[in-house]
Design brief:
The protein has 18 helices and 13 strands. It is an alpha/beta fold and 382 residues long. It folds into two domains: 201 residues, 3-Layer(aba) Sandwich (Rossmann fold); 177 residues, 3-Layer(aba) Sandwich (Rossmann fold).
Length: 382
């Protein structure tokens, strides 16, 4: 059996991190188990992989990569020079025609592949719709997101749909009862020993601080709520020594930095940029805070649990409530509630919260997400 994982690009992000962990588990199973020895795994992308972290890993593990649109990197590169009429429209039109022409040959190009896994929210729907092979859709978001991207009417195109949480499966069955037998839940994997080892090797910083790790996209990740809550906490407690460490990069990084510069707590907000190993910072934080408006299954919470650091999360769809056991294994706050998050920060700082109680419950429950257990589910599915 030849299996192709279809993922549009490989940027530093949560989905990509989970993908590499999933792929690593599969490769170990294929190597160690005689029953899987005839499975071959490859990757299909829209654009060339340029991120050294992922590029080196794939080369090291001998994973073959096929690129659907080799010129996509070039079209993306010229975007900043053509961001005005009429060059912007001309670039989009040319790029669209280029992709249509390339798609015509994909059926023959991938004729030897037996199973396609559309790993990132049905992003390969157009490429796969003309290929008569088995297909699995892996959804890293909400059921509503499928409607937003316009594929909800075409889900019967997939033989199986994988969601990341039980809540996703429940909502999916309610909205698409005719596909109830096709949907299943598989958690994102976490290898506790690996994360702990990386934390020991990773950098950190002295003093007390709260930590946030994400791709800097202000709308979904709701960084505004996080930052304003920290500003309120900072002013209320008059604590110039406590910091907020924001780890990550992305399209909104400059905008977020500019916003922070207007606040009184500006000198206490530390931007590290993208880190290959953020776990040292996460391990030594007062708490790791997730402020998102929407998620699939936030891996950063699993990583924080593995490091035995307190989790504080917005109670968004999906994941946080399921991961944190309805608030027993971490602290939940209402999405966008600045005052509530600020008060939680104060309670943590002033040690009015029994952190050990939450951490102990989180550690006990982490086996649900073990890489071995998740990998067994994936291999059974395949």
């Amino acid at each position: 059996m030849k299996i192709a994982f279809c993922i549009p690009d490989m940027i530093i992000g949560g989905v990509e991190t989970v993908f590499i962990r999933t792929l690593d588990g599969m490769l170990k199973s294929i190597t160690s188990c005689p029953a899987y020895k005839d499975i071959d795994v490859c990757i299909i992308t829209h654009a060339r992989i340029t991120e050294p972290l992922y590029k080196d890993w794939l080369q090291k593990h001998g994973v073959e990569v096929f690129v659907c649109y080799p010129m996509q990197n070039w079209f993306e590169g010229i975007a900043k020079y053509t961001n005005f009429f009429p060059l912007k429209q001309l670039r989009k039109l040319t790029f669209s025609l280029y992709k249509k022409l390339k798609r015509r040959n994909l059926k023959n190009k991938f004729s030897d592949i037996d199973l396609f896994i559309d790993y990132k929210n049905c992003s390969f729907f157009k490429e796969l719709k003309c290929i008569d092979k088995q297909k699995i859709a892996w959804v890293h978001g909400t059921v509503g997101y499928l409607h937003d991207i316009g594929v909800d009417k075409h889900l019967d195109f997939y033989d199986k749909i994988v969601g990341l949480t039980d809540d996703f499966v429940t909502d999916f069955k309610n909205l698409f009862p005719y596909l109830s037998d096709r949907v299943t839940r598989i958690y994102n994997p976490i290898e506790k020993e690996e994360v702990v080892d990386l934390a020991i090797k990773g950098n950190s910083m002295p003093g007390e601080y709260f930590c946030h790790v994400s791709r800097l996209e202000n709308v979904q990740k709701d960084l505004r709520t996080l930052i304003l809550a920290f500003e309120q906490f900072y002013l209320h407690n008059s604590c110039p020594d406590v910091k907020l460490v924001i780890i990550g990069g992305g399209p909104k990084e400059r905008e977020v930095r500019k916003f922070v510069s207007t606040l009184k707590c500006a000198e206490n907000v530390v931007f590290t940029g993208v880190l290959k190993n953020p776990f040292g910072y996460m391990k030594n934080a007062l708490a790791n805070i997730l402020s998102s408006k929407i998620e699939g299954l936030p891996t950063v919470l699993l990583e924080s649990m593995a490091l035995e650091t307190l989790c504080v999360s917005a109670d968004c769809q999906y994941g946080p409530r399921e991961i944190l056991l309805n608030g027993e294994a971490g602290i939940l706050f209402d999405v966008g509630d600045i005052n509530q998050l600020s008060n939680i920060m104060t309670d943590i700082y002033q040690k009015r919260i029994d952190t050990n109680k939450f951490v102990k419950r989180a550690t006990e429950s982490l086996s649900r997400f073990s890489a071995q257990k998740v990998n067994e589910q994936i291999m059974d599915l395949l």
